[in-house]
Amino acid sequence: MVAKNIWSVLIGLSILTACQSIPVSNDLAVTDPHLPEDVEPGSSTQSLATSSAKNDQTAKDAGEVSQSSAESKSANELTDAKEGLPVPTPEQVVTRLQLDALQLQSEGRWQEAEVVLERAMRIDAEKVDLYHQMATVRMGQQRFAEAEQIALKGLTLTDKTPKYKASLWEVIGQCRSAMGDVDGARKARSEMLKWMDDE
């Protein structure tokens, strides 16, 4: 009985010794599909390789997004070119603004009409009928002195378009009459009639 117990103790000691001789690693081995086969898991080479693989994938993804964005923009530009209207000329823009201002004038919205005409005059500062229209807006605002000055300015630009002289002198006569300048109004009407006859 004693011999049997001694034999059991010896077998237990042998198993314990064998277990202690087995090396134990605290690091869990993780297989990275991006690593070459000859790279040892857990090494510094593994870290560098993994980082490089991630950077390559990020760059690839960014490239695909950039290409997709460029293709989308190109497609939009082609659509605009096919479906969009031609870019209007400055003359067309000014004409459109004048029509908008006329609509505002007819509604008594003088301040808004003034803003629209000022924009038109920034595009074409030598278009005579803009000065005539702006002068009529000033009259609608009861700003007769300013209206007269704008009409006089317009007269300096009528060398190439004398047909506007009569309408500008008419505005000047109305402004002077509104301000009580009877003689000035009479002279303005005389000028208006003269240019009407010349037409």
Q: Describe the main β-sheet briefly.
A: none
Overall pLDDT level: 74
In the CATH scheme, the class of the domain at 90-198 would be: Mainly Alpha
Cα-atom radius of gyration = 46 Å
| Count of alpha/pi helices | 8
Total DSSP E strands: 0
Any overview of this molecule?
The chain has helices at residues 2-20, 44-83, 90-106, 110-123, 128-140, 144-155, 163-178, 182-198. It has 199 residues and is mainly α. The protein has a domain at 90-198: Serine Threonine Protein Phosphatase 5, Tetratricopeptide repeat, CATH 1.25.40.
Task: Provide keyphrases for this structure.
single chain, 199 residues
Provide the fold topology.
Layout: H1 2-20, H2 44-83, H3 90-106, H4 110-123, H5 128-140, H6 144-155, H7 163-178, H8 182-198
Helix pairs in contact: 3-4, 4-5, 5-6, 5-7, 6-7, 7-8
Write a concise synopsis of the structure shown.
The protein is mostly helical.
